[in-house]
Design a protein that fits this description.
The chain has 76 residues and is mainly β. It is built from 1 helix and 5 strands; from the N terminus they run ββαβββ. A 5-stranded mixed beta sheet has the order 1-2-3-4-5, with no helix packed on it.
Amino acid sequence: MAFQNKNLSVIAYANGFTLWHYVESATLATITASGYFNAVGTLMNTGDVVIINASDKTSIKKIAVSDGVVTTGALD
């Protein structure tokens, strides 16, 4: 499925850091593919964190933004 803005919400924001929540009936692999969140790339920042509730599992990912492309990765 394509990104749905209505499924993204801010849980907390402080000092330039945002904790996001996203829920979707797509798989985690689909949601975490590079560029999935590009539609809101101007809102997200490198270092933000997103909690994803996908159809197959739930995961917490860090966000990286480079040249307008949003990617997610494992928390270190």
